[in-house]
Amino acid sequence: MKSEMKKQWDDIPLKGMLPQDLKSRMWKNIRRATIAKTKNVYRWMTAASVILVMTAMGYQFFNRTVNAERIVVTQTFDNDIRLVRLPDGSRVWLNEGSKIEYPENFDGSARNVILIGEAFFEVEKDSLKPFIISSGLIKTTVLGTSFNVKAYEGAVPLVEVRTGKVKVENKNGKVFLVKGDAAVYMPTSETLVKKKALKLEPDYKKELLDVDGLTLEEVVLILHKDYNFSVEYGAPDLKMLKIKGTLATKQGITEMLNTLAFALDLKVTEKENHLYILSR
Questions:
Q1: Residue 173 CB-density burial (10 A; 0-12 exposed, 13-18 middle, 19+ buried)
Q2: How far apart are CA 59 and CA 92, in angstroms?
Q3: What is the DSSP string of 81-107?
Q4: Residue range 157-183: mean pLDDT, rounded
Q5: With contact defined as beta carbons under 8 Å apart, do 179 and 149 qualify?
Q6: Global pTM?
Q7: Which domains are present in the chain?
Q8: pLDDT recorded at residue 51
């Protein structure tokens, strides 16, 4: 049974995104927890790799070469939202069923990316190198700002701006947007129309919290904004432990704290009145 379980573990596609120490600990925990539940092993391990692990990488990524330039392609699928970090430090929340392509390094005079689907961008400022998104019928140009681009194949393209200034253009014209503005492509006239944005930040972005480089205490303070709970630390130094990756907020506060604890090799003890104790 051990060899069969190990084979199933090795066949899980998501497992390749995990740090080696987390993979080792997950495998040991899974063996203990599922030794008498062989029929549910694959289902349990797949869920564990999705729910209990934080990752800063895209769900699927690979390199290809175009004109001697290495291109990175990141793609998401159904019920899958990922955070992508670009070479210049910009962050992209890629919604489900979407794909983004970008060079391994932004060496040219512009930072060019290609988007199919929907993504929220937080672009690092660089006045000498504009950030350009080609997404089907429209092109979006910025220097440093945050905004959402929705350009699924067969759907009407839409750009909504949260901060900064954005230029959106197509073959028949262009519009300039600032915070709270949106650009909508009109299929009949093949023109862009400027409107008020319905949302400054899409709901799907909130489902994935970027905690990379933050301390455990900093992450807990962020979670306090949306959840009613309190935390006690078994030792003062636990507050300063650094987190890597992203955190799925759909889990609920108990599951998120368990995710953090698992990543840091800690224990979580739940008490009354939404009190959680984190210890080694």
A1: exposed
A2: 13
A3: -EEEE-TTS-EEEEPTT-EEEEESS--
A4: 97
A5: no
A6: 0.77
A7: 2-51 (no CATH), 60-202 (2.60.120.1440), 211-279 (3.55.50.30)
A8: 36
